[in-house]
User: Fold this.
Amino acid sequence: MAILKVTRLGHPVLRQVAQLVPVHSILQPEFQQFIDDMIETMHEYEGVGLAAPQVHVSQQVAVLEVSKHPRYPDAPSVPLTVLINPKVTMLSEEKVDGWEGCLSIPDLRGVAPRYRELRVEALDRQGQPLDFVARDFHARVIQHEYDHLQGKVYMDRMPSLETLAHLLEGQRYWLKD
Ligand code: NI
Assistant:
């Protein structure tokens, strides 16, 4: 296992549409190792998701997991999921605002609207089909990671940059109850 170097905003790979993963390569040891490395990297940097372009690999792979996350303490748990070549279909017209951050945009957060509900069709790390519906925070994480595979970042989804905040200032002025 290895912790991979995370791409930061400005690296061109973050702005490319990632390549489809050839299905025959999924079970190969090199690709399985890459998935393990992505999971370890996500855990190391306390992300709730990580897309391959964020580790300099322009392929349609993302991992996500939410479990008692320190930065999202109220978020419902999402089991560890590997999405290969995902297709996302929005199931609601409704969008909800929520705070997002990104390992490729360190120390910043901002409010972005996301669809409340969506359907995901993808392959898992065994190359088996996945087909499920995600809502609310789970749907938000998937939209964020899917965007990375399309060359988009959460700031592209912000209607205004007025909520853009450094992490500590955001906690101090925006998230206080
Ligand atoms: Ni991100």
